[in-house]
Design brief:
The chain is built from 4 helices and 7 strands, in the order E-E-E-H-E-E-H-H-H-E-E. By secondary structure, it is an alpha+beta fold. It has 2 domains: about 5-45; about 60-150, 2-Layer Sandwich (GMP Synthetase, Chain A, domain 3). The protein has a 4-stranded mixed β-sheet. Strands 1-2-3 form a 3-stranded antiparallel β-sheet, with no helix packed on it. A hairpin with a 5-residue loop joins strand 4 (about 75-85) and strand 5. About 20% of the residues are buried.
């Protein structure tokens, strides 16, 4: 497979489980990561939370990109990611599931014209497509009033979804 780009992330231990994370682009601020108590001191997010942030950000950006290209009016986007920790067959703690809820603030007349983007955006999200190979990811998109616009609980293909006005 052809390589389409690389990125570099450097981590340096400060103390115990606390690390400074630096990115290859000097414009990006360093971040502090740490493990939850009792292991760490919770001075920053842990790796599982960063994974949730990466999935939520990638899905949101992918959806916004498609909506902007399609000239669909989006006033705002809010994304919540709920991670569920589970134990594997050997008793090791793992991120077992990520539930993503994207709320679009769109004009009422726009919700009926979103189907194309809703059927495409997940497949273009680099992070989620990669994560889904090992972690279940569900994606729900609603409008500001709470009406379901899209739902996908298909673990691998991203092809099983509910479109606008389908229940």
């Amino acid at each position: 497979m052809a390589e389409h780009g690389k990125f570099l992330v450097d981590l340096e231990r400060i103390n115990n489980y606390e690390f400074t994370v630096r990115f290859d682009n000097k414009k990006f601020a360093s971040i502090l990561v740490d493990e939850p108590k009792p292991l760490g001191d919770e001075k920053g997010p842990n790796a599982a939370r960063l994974l949730g942030a990466a999935v939520g950000n990638c899905l949101s950006a992918s959806l916004i990109f498609c909506l902007e290209k399609a000239r669909r009016g989006v006033n705002g986007v809010h994304t919540s990611v709920t991670g569920t920790m589970t134990r594997n067959e050997r008793g090791r703690l793992r991120v077992g599931k990520l539930d993503v809820h994207i709320t679009l603030d769109v004009n009422t007349e726009e919700t009926k014209r979103l189907d194309r983007c809703l059927s495409l955006f997940e497949d273009f999200c680099v992070v989620t497509a990669s994560v889904k190979k090992g972690i279940e990811v569900t994606v729900l998109v609603t409008d500001k009033a709470g009406n379901q616009l899209y739902y996908n609980d298909d673990k691998a293909s991203g092809q099983s979804f509910t479109k606008v006005n389908e229940k």
